[in-house]
User: Fold these one by one.
Assistant:
Number 1:
Amino acid sequence: MEVETVGEKVGEVYRVSGPLVVAEGFKARMYDVCKVGEEGLLGEVVGLAGDRLLVQVYEDTSGIKPGDKVEGTGMPLSIDLGPGIMRSIYDGIQRPLPVMKEIAGDFITRGIEADGIDMKAKWEFNPVLKKGDNVKGGEILGTVQETEIIEHKILVPPDVSGTITDLYSGSFTVQDTIGVLDNGTELRLYHRWPVRIPRPYVEKLPPVIPLMTGQRIFDTLFPMAKGGTGAIPGGFGTGKTVTQHQLARWSDSNVIVYVGCGERGNEMTEVLEEFPELLDPKTGKPLMERATLVANTSNMPVAAREASVYTGMTIAEYYRDMGYDVAVQADSTSRWAEAMREMSGRLEEMPGEEGYPAYLASRLAEFYERAGRVKTLGGQIGSVSVVGAVSPPGGDFSEPVTQNTLRIVKVFWALDTKLAARRHFPAINWLQSYSLYAETLAEWFRENVSPEWTELRTWMMEVLQEEANLMEIVMLVGKDALPEVQRILLEVARYIREVYLSQYAYHEVDTYCSTQKQYDMMKAIKELDDIFHKALDAGKTIDEIENVEGREDFARAKFSEDYKPLLDEAVNKIRNALLGGGA
Amino acid sequence: MKEYKTITKVAGPLIFVEKTEPVGFGELVMVTLPDGTVRRGQVLDSAKGMVVVQSFEGTRGIDTSSVVRFTGDIVKLACSKDMLGRILSGSGDPIDGGPKIVPEDRIPVIGAAINPYARTYPREFIQTGISAIDGMNTLIRGQKLPIFSGSGLPHNDIALQIARQAKVLGTGEEFAVIFAAMGITHEEAYQFMKDFERTGALERAVVFLNLANDPAIERLLTPKMALTAAEFLAYEYDLHILVILTDFTNYCEALREMSAAREEVPGRRGYPGYMYTDLATNYERAGRIRGRKGTITQFPVLSMPADDITHPIPDLTGYITEGQIVLSRELHAKGIYPPINVLPSLSRLMKEGIGEGMTRDDHPQWNDQMYAAYAEGVDLRGLVAIVGEEALSEKDRRFLRFADEFERRWLQQDRYEDRTIDQTLDLGWELLSMLPEAELVKIETKFIEKYHPAYRKKGAEAAEEAA
């Protein structure tokens, strides 16, 4: 993308304070990228004050002194979009970490320059358009097989249009010319896009298709939609990261963008070691074939952490424009907000709540609004779904990042310290969480899984709600004081909690639960409910019901690949024990 | 090198110097007082004609006639293998009366972030000989696992015991210990030193001491010094390093003091908004690097103000470290050592480092069962307080007894008792055998038959008969 530059391009440092450099002697626009010092440390203009520019630098500024050179590039922070993104792992400003390791060794040093995609690799390009075709921005010119799973659609850059005068096929590097338009524009396999500007689309479509995650509590109780937004807040040790990993592994999106924003180094390593090993449930190919990671760990420069979520989002939008369903996992948005707070503090801006800048809410809203299911410029339908982890201090959800996030997102998966302490995982609190997509998606479940789906889901929610009410009474008077019908409800709720909602991420079978299995399990629990009530009518005592033979078989069925016969058998065993054979 | 006598303002630990030539951010600064003593500091903010210096060694005695010299260098630590066995100040100078350390290399203490792509996931079990850690919150080589303590609790004893006993099974490789004291009292430091000397551990240790009466700001440097030494020994000399950092609460207080002096916008409870990032730059200097033999395992100690785990210091720490060992005042009051409350404690790396081939095949399920049974027993204690023990069923009473025995026999051990992992697991099995076998739902039958004392006894009898 060509951008005209303004005025003098080289100036000098006036002041340096941590990641903030004040420069003078040249002009630049807000959010233009600058290079600071001899090493050319990358920075971004975040404020203008008279003749001076406030630059946030993405790298450690030790040794930078007043008078050092500052050079404006005249370009906003942009990333390379083209084949080669899948299977990559980047820092916050799209520098590939393996390349950085090659250049600088095991530790991240300053001033490393690296392209976002390999400029020398050759790709086989198959055009789908031809000479004489009129094209506009976002249209698909042709394809490149990027990985075994992903067919990369080569797009006309969004701001380009014209008539094709030439379009070649064959093997090209991303920088080679693959075609020319009548206005002289050369087409390539890649283009650049500024990360802070959402990529355009024709229109947003309603989110009516669920993003299946294979996690029972999500899919059944609090479903996420393709193109939807969700948040997972929780204190430390409640399983935010494990949940995010599970979503990345099992969600039925075409492309995964995992943004590790200010989190632990070893956690990113775990993802890095694991994703190439894990097989995609649909294709049987390694998950990494359709994933990209943006890893800016907590000890990497804080300004690049701020940029990392935008880098991830821009990559996601790019694949959306090819007509793919993309899932963005951002772990953790709190660290991103803290990076904003830190920069804001250095800029000496008037603080809002808890020192966060007053624009925290609008930045969060802008970010989540980039999600959605859309009709692309090229006429495809694609989506970007975003799930952001939130790390509230002390696990207290009343803090600004959680609250401002909840005002925007439609799905709230509340992690609960108490459940985690009881080792109930995923530690999602079923009373606090919600999904505003449940209504719109009900239609889909009715048509694609079972007409009873919504009914069963509602029933489970009611049982859990009623259980919570009853537990308050139990706390006061003890379980024995409850009428037997209510004790059956407690017992059924226990099955729902311990068998259905509790799911083992590390168990090879239980880690993923298909929609059909979810339905079968729900149905089986409902059947137990009927059996228990009938048994009570038939004169069985509550103790007999609670300790009925077969209850362990029932609980274990989900751990088996071939669960259905085991589940049926367990239900029969329980029925026989309580109601006698053949009932 | 330019010298300046242009100090215009001193505020707390900050020195403002005017009319300077350009000075680099982060540069090391020497301030010479009229009486000749030299104080060190670091450039915090450098603008044309004005520099703000943070003094590591306090500002007492500094006046406007003091001479400020900018060294053009950043803060570095003189590193050498000869550091082992030495006692250094919080800013890296020898204070044991020994000779100066002849540096093999001078390394910036600020440290660089490990490229996540260069890391390798930690998987090796470290046996500390403490049941509560080995059994239920296993420490892994390359992990950062803090102790969340409170004032008056024996966290130092635990740290020392780990330093004495930590080993990786089957390798015979010992740990070198880097001990960094931040603002601890003379008495506590003495306890550490005495123990190091007595057990001969000092030979394999580097000690950095910043005591309670040393300048608070020096504390901001101490962990960075210690971790730089750790990185040097781990990556240049292939040593396995255990870094004990105590007490991070004092470090954070110093950070807050600094932030207040700089008149920054405070975050929660007056701590600066960048405390998370600052702590992370310390804690993240642990781990393993692909292709390098040496490793760095961190054991930071922090005391939770008013035992409040939601206080910003433990809270932010918990978000960065890979788990936490939480000490309990209640257990301590019962006279139990180590008073580790296993319920809120956690080791995130444990799952990859235990089980067959690493500790023992039954370990993961054994752990789930011990945790569940103890949690149940503790829950029941709450109930007993209301309804009395008579109201409990026989089964519940067994759980109650399990929880008591768990604390008295399994948790409780001597400060010099070094239990093997087998002892830890077998003792746990003995306790589990107090419960009805049908209640051991988290353990597969094959492990019950292999390790449950009832079966072992039968097995032993059968073997005897056969003989």
Number 2:
Amino acid sequence: MALTRREFLKGISLTVAALGLPAEFIPRMVQAAMAKKRPPVIWLHFQECTGCTETLLRASHPDVAKLIFELISLDYHETIMAAAGHQAEKSLHDSVQANKGKYICVVEGGIPTADKGIHCKIAGKTGVQIIKEVANNAAAVIAIGTCAAFGGVQAAKPNPTRVKSAGDLIKGPPVVNIPGCPPNPANFLGFILHYLTFGKLPALDKLGRPKFAYGRLIHDHCERRAHFDDGRYAEEFGGEGHKLGYCLYKLGCKGPQTYANCPTARFNDVGAWPVGIGHGCAGCTEPGFWDNGSFYERLPEIAGLKVDEAGGKATGAVAVAAGVHAVAGVGRKLAKAKGGK
Amino acid sequence: MSKEQYVWSIPLRLFHLVFVVSIVILTVTGFYIYSPGGGAVAEETIGFDMGATRSWHFIVAGAFVVSVLLRLVLFVGGGTKYEKFTDFAPVNNRNLKNLFSTIAYYLYLTDKHERRLGHNALAGSSYIGIVLVSLVQILSGFCLLYPESGLWQGTGLALFGSIATVRFVHHIFTWLFILFAVIHVYIAVWNHVRTPAEGMLLSIFTGKKQDSEE
């Protein structure tokens, strides 16, 4: 399935736009994409659902996925490689030996560290071992998806297998986080093209995420923002406000605390994204998003109570205590007055 | 005989006024921002309820920040000696003793109490506490106000771990102000009732207390 020139240019233009670069960069990127030797890429799976790979492969138009596989030499990827068993392990070993310090390692999934890492083993090796042998010898590591970037659902409390993120374990190469559950393939492609064109990592935020994709807040670029500012909210799913497309803030949308380009890049080449189809943002690009409370509440609970219930109860308790204190004082005074007589 | 004493400087009284008024406005607007009630605003009306409430929250927050900074300065100097933190913080023997005697006095365990023109050590500690709570509120507030500034995003992540936690902390700390206000007003009234000659409740407006011998 060869990529046509039209598809190729379309994909590059899309990425240049996603990176926020001016159109002059299109020829530069086209040149970089055609001239450079395709960088070897080793793709590792740990504790995950393979959704990040699936989202890449199942784009409605094949442009993005095809372009990615035209740009890189994917030497090892458990989901899509033809080789199996010892053959597969050999190709992994060969690629690591031949390209030491030159390949890009993509990590998908969190890495369990409890019980010496036995909760995730591939070809008899634990995830921690594979990270040491493969990821630590890469030129750069991409932690794709929230599990690799921040631990994800595996690291949610109580984190029984003590899952760590790729960044926690990898020593040596720089780690770029491309979180999301799943992340937008455009962001992965953007990183690859940026790397090919400029030969260096893109600007990263404090959590190691490329700023071109995770530099801005969802809420500030949301198509429903006008409804938010005007005080129009969907009160319940299927309710009047929901049908009219009002802001999903009161249904627990995490857009105000989540950094991602979902409102602009969108998904599946059809311009869809969660808020656009009427569901609040779950905050999936943020660390610990599983532990930040219900997807349908604005804030987590305290000891099983909603924050304001807890606060109201505490205030009530203090008011009662003050009342008791005052009554005790008055009683004491009366008793004294009586005793004094 | 009672003698009038100058206890609270004008900057301190100004701080108190701005602090109180801004906390009331910030709490009310803050709760609206957290959970906007009152039903959906009709389309094609002037609207902008949330936008305007947020603007007021931010403007008043500016006054709140100034008042807290003013109090921090007065802790060190610039006002009367009663406003310095050495006068009431439980950091020396005199204040530590006063802390325990005040607790006993408040629990009706004793009628003896050290007469002080300024704060007693218990009240003073709670004021230092509420200023610290204010600082957390200010920092978390700025992190939420400037989510795309590297400086504030970095500060939020360093102090609280995630922006979601910043939001959570900013909300639960609001309740600390409410709790503080209930206790503070109750204790002030209680003291006024016990020693009315001192004129405690009025002192925050006039700056003067009666140094009465009782």
